[in-house]
Amino acid sequence: MTKLVILVLIGSLAAIAFGQTESYVPPQVVVTTIPPQPPVTTTESPVTKSTSKTTSTAAPVTTSTTTATTTTTTTTTTTTPAPPNSTTTTTTTTTPAPEPPKPIEPSEGIWELSYPNSTKSCVLLQFALQIEVPYDATNNKTYLAYVNVPPNASANGECSKTDTQMIELDWLNADNKTDTISLSFVKNATSKVYRLTDIKASLNPDNKNFPAIANASALSLTHEHDEFKTTLSKSYKCAKKQELHLNETDKKPRGSIFVSNLQFEVFQNSTNKQFTDVEDCAPSDTPDVVPIAVGCALAALVIIVLIAYLIGRRRGQARGYLSM
Ligand SMILES: *[C@@H]1O[C@H](CO)[C@@H](O)[C@H](O)[C@H]1NC(C)=O
Ligand SMILES: *[C@@H]1O[C@H](CO)[C@@H](O)[C@H](O)[C@H]1NC(C)=O
Ligand SMILES: *[C@@H]1O[C@H](CO)[C@@H](O)[C@H](O)[C@H]1NC(C)=O
Ligand SMILES: *[C@@H]1O[C@H](CO)[C@@H](O)[C@H](O)[C@H]1NC(C)=O
Ligand SMILES: *[C@@H]1O[C@H](CO)[C@@H](O)[C@H](O)[C@H]1NC(C)=O
Ligand SMILES: *[C@@H]1O[C@H](CO)[C@@H](O)[C@H](O)[C@H]1NC(C)=O
Ligand SMILES: *[C@@H]1O[C@H](CO)[C@@H](O)[C@H](O)[C@H]1NC(C)=O
Ligand SMILES: *[C@@H]1O[C@H](CO)[C@@H](O)[C@H](O)[C@H]1NC(C)=O
Ligand SMILES: *[C@@H]1O[C@H](CO)[C@@H](O)[C@H](O)[C@H]1NC(C)=O
After folding, report:
1. What tens digit of pLDDT does each residue of 142-157 get?
2. Are 205 and 214 in contact, with CB atoms under 8 Å apart?
3. Which ligand has an atom closest to residue 226 CA?
4. Which of 132, 159, 271, 277 could pair covalently with 122 via S-S, beta carbons 3.0-4.6 A apart?
């Protein structure tokens, strides 16, 4: 008896499993498989198998088959709505604010400015200059824009005064708006020196360098510190890259100027348009902190490794004596 019960149980389980797999595998082909349906129809008539062949003989049987097909179609309709739902959810995506392009190294340019109605030059200027400006995009992220002064920027300025001279470089940005940078110099005739007193930059946010804030009003940035003291009738020269911090018009810090291959001569008065005697930027003026730091770190590392080695060796020796 128990064996029979077990057999029946196994059989029923197998049947359930078989029925489940059958119902799972063909969700669309269920119409052709009538096996799950017979249990319902057995109560009415055992001639269900013949109905598939002879449909014209029994009218009530055909109705039972139609109900079967309708039930299967309802099951298929309940399963189909899922894909459209998933597709509609994927369409809701937020568009990120465009990022500005990666910085490219500025090219070196050389500019010359002459005294009014004269062939004699007052300012000779050479540099590769990049302005780095942070700005807030619409997604509340802060990006860095990099604006290079192009070598074909045009030079204007003011050389008519005896103690101050100024050179201004103008160029068109990607949106055909005029960007400018100006450098002002002051001469001290008594001490026979001149120096840079301020740099002013005006940048129009364009679509290329300032995406997401294009067409915003021009940025006015200044560096107001005396820099690059030079003996009169000499030129100042500094090849290495130097950073000069910038302020916005409201005196808040914003951005930097990175200038390299710098050379200028102001309060000049010659027709040959050449730099004369050179005063190179002294290495002591701007100590290279990074190489010194790297050197110290390396020295510390060497000492640590040496100490570790010595300790290890001493322990090894101690252990060696113990084992003996
Ligand atoms: C449809 O999507 C909503 C939310 O995106 C979810 O709650 C629901 O369960 C989904 N319905 C189906 C049938 O997947
Ligand atoms: C330069 O020359 C123009 C005419 O050629 C004259 O009008 C102008 O006043 C001159 N400027 C100076 C500073 O001499
Ligand atoms: C940006 O920040 C402001 C205030 O801090 C907030 O109201 C706004 O929702 C933020 N916008 C985004 C896109 O995060
Ligand atoms: C300067 O050079 C750029 C390309 O390097 C060019 O697109 C632009 O028209 C030039 N501007 C002038 C005023 O020549
Ligand atoms: C800028 O001007 C030049 C010529 O004047 C034109 O070819 C170019 O399309 C303009 N660019 C923009 C962004 O307006
Ligand atoms: C020029 O230099 C001298 C000597 O260093 C100094 O006394 C004088 O104040 C300076 N003049 C100006 C305008 O800075
Ligand atoms: C900026 O203005 C120009 C012309 O005025 C327009 O074509 C462009 O779409 C504007 N850009 C943005 C980001 O508003
Ligand atoms: C920025 O402005 C402050 C306040 O006036 C000033 O102390 C600082 O020197 C300025 N920095 C530059 C780079 O001009
Ligand atoms: C330039 O030098 C000439 C003499 O060589 C002099 O007459 C002229 O005034 C000087 N100009 C300036 C702006 O110093």
Report:
1. 889 999 999 999 999 9
2. yes
3. 8
4. 159
